[in-house]
């Protein structure tokens, strides 16, 4: 189920974006990521796991998930790619990775989920300002826990709608049956559209949402923060305002820099250490 990348008439053709990556690589094997922020963050964690790992390798970004997949699967099978899970369901992750042997998904929902767990980021917070909380971790953790249920609900609805959208629409945005080939019979068109409309039934979607949320509530708090909530949105909407409330104003980008500073950044979680050992093993 490989995805097509790029769009005709876009700012850069397929050959253009790929050529840029190849030029930057200079013939070195590439660890290919989605975005430039990913490079800084994953380089930081990788250096903790395997100091000097980048010798003889290049770590570069393709701009988006589909281009990571295309570059590795179609053009450079010697490269390795890392992408977020985000919109992929667990079943889809399994299905995709059976085909894409050298493209791996991060263990957590997305990269920002590594900065949403209070006990993981607490040790990297500015110690000279800890007096704002009297060095009481619970005062930092509790607002995160207070917000968690609403963001689990958001995660449940996000998953249901993404799954529904995938079922309803082809990549072009058309209902899949109308997009794949000509359908000229009016009765058949009517049945396709009736089926399409039926899948948008609010009661059906709400039932799926309630089931999804009930499944999420069975997870531990750590699992919810690591694997279920939408980390990008949670970090910007919950974590950053909380950090700014107690530790001084900074953008979400500046906080990510703080947490990946070589002198006082966060420690690499165990599952990420194991993940990176697998990634580096693919270059051997």
Number of strands: 4
Categorize the overall geometry: flat
Can you tell me the number of structural domains? 2
Mean pLDDT: 85
What is the straight-line distance between the termini? 27 Å
Helix proportion = 55-70%
Largest sheet: 4 strands, parallel
In sequence order, what are the helices and strands, one letter per element? HEHEHEHEHHHHHHHHH
Please indicate the percent range of residues in DSSP E strands (runs of 2 or more). 5-15%
Radius of gyration: 22 Å
Task: Give the low-confidence spans.
Answer: 1-13
Strand order of the largest sheet: 2-1-3-4
What is the multimeric organization of the chains shown? single chain
Computed structural class: mainly alpha
Number of helices: 13
Question: What report would you give on this structure?
Answer:
With 284 residues, the chain is mostly helical. It folds into two domains: 1-105 and 266-284, Rossmann fold (3-Layer(aba) Sandwich); 112-249, no CATH class. Helix content is 57%, strand content 5%. The protein has 13 helices and four strands. Helix 6 (137-168) packs antiparallel against helix 9 (202-217) and helix 6 packs antiparallel against helix 11 (231-247).
Q: Can you give keywords for this protein?
A:
284 residues; mainly alpha; Rossmann fold; four-stranded parallel beta sheet; 13 helices; 4 strands; flat; disordered N terminus
Describe the structure in brief.
By secondary structure, the chain is mainly α. The chain has 13 helices and 4 strands. A 4-stranded parallel β-sheet has the order 2-1-3-4.
């Amino acid at each position: 189920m490989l995805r097509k990348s790029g769009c005709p008439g876009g700012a850069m053709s397929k050959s253009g974006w790929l050529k840029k990556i190849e030029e930057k690589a200079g013939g070195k094997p590439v660890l290919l990521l989605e975005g430039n922020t990913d490079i800084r963050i994953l380089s930081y964690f990788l250096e903790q796991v395997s100091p000097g790992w980048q010798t003889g390798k290049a770590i570069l970004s393709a701009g988006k998930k589909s281009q990571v997949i295309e570059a590795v699967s179609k053009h450079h099978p010697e490269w390795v790619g890392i992408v977020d899970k985000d919109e992929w369901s667990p079943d889809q992750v399994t299905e995709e990775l059976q085909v894409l042997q050298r493209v791996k998904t991060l263990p957590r929902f997305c990269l920002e989920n590594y900065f949403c767990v209070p006990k993981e980021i607490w040790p990297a917070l500015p110690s000279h300002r800890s007096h704002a909380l009297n060095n009481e971790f619970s005062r930092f953790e509790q607002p995160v826990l207070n917000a968690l249920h609403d963001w689990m609900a958001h995660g449940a609805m996000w998953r249901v709608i993404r799954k529904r959208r995938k079922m309803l629409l082809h990549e072009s945005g058309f209902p899949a049956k109308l997009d794949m080939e000509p359908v000229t019979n009016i009765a058949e068109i009517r049945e396709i559209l009736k089926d399409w409309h039926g899948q948008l039934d609010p009661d059906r979607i709400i039932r799926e949402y309630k089931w999804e949320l009930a499944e999420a509530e069975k997870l531990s708090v750590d699992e919810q923060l690591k694997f279920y909530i939408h980390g990008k949105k949670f970090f910007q909407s919950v974590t950053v305002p909380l950090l700014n409330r107690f530790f001084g104003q900074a953008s979400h980008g500046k906080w990510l820099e703080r947490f990946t500073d070589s002198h006082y950044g966060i420690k690499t979680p165990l599952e990420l250490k194991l993940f990176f050992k697998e990634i580096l093993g693919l270059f051997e």
